[in-house]
Amino acid sequence: MPEEHDPSDLTGAMQLALDRKHYYGIFYEESGRPTFEDNELTTREKAAG
């Protein structure tokens, strides 16, 4: 992943993903949003009553 890449930049992440070079790492990361695991736990707790 290039040093100057900002993982909060969706447009930049898409450009890297479509680049012919192969990059490894986090392309895009959205903060402030619950994770899948957090949502699953909340759903299970609500379903349990």
Structural summary, described in words:
With 49 residues, the chain is mainly α. The chain has one domain. The protein has two helices and no strands. The N and C termini lie far apart (45 Å). The model has no long low-confidence stretch (mean pLDDT 91).
Query: Averaged pLDDT, please?
Result: 91
Computed structural class: mainly alpha
Number-wise, the strands total: 0
Proportion of residues in β-strands? under 5%
Overall outline? elongated
User: Terminal Cα separation, in Å?
Assistant: 45 Å
Major β-sheet profile: none
What is the rounded Rg? 16 Å
Q: What is the domain tally? A: 1
- Secondary structure tally, helices: 2
Work out the helicity level: 40-55%
Uncertain segments are none
**What are the secondary-structure elements, in order, as H or E?**
HH
Topology, pairings included?
Blueprint: H1 10-18, H2 36-48
What is the compact description of this entry?
The protein is mainly α and 49 residues long.
Can you give keywords for this protein?
single chain; 2 helices; mainly alpha
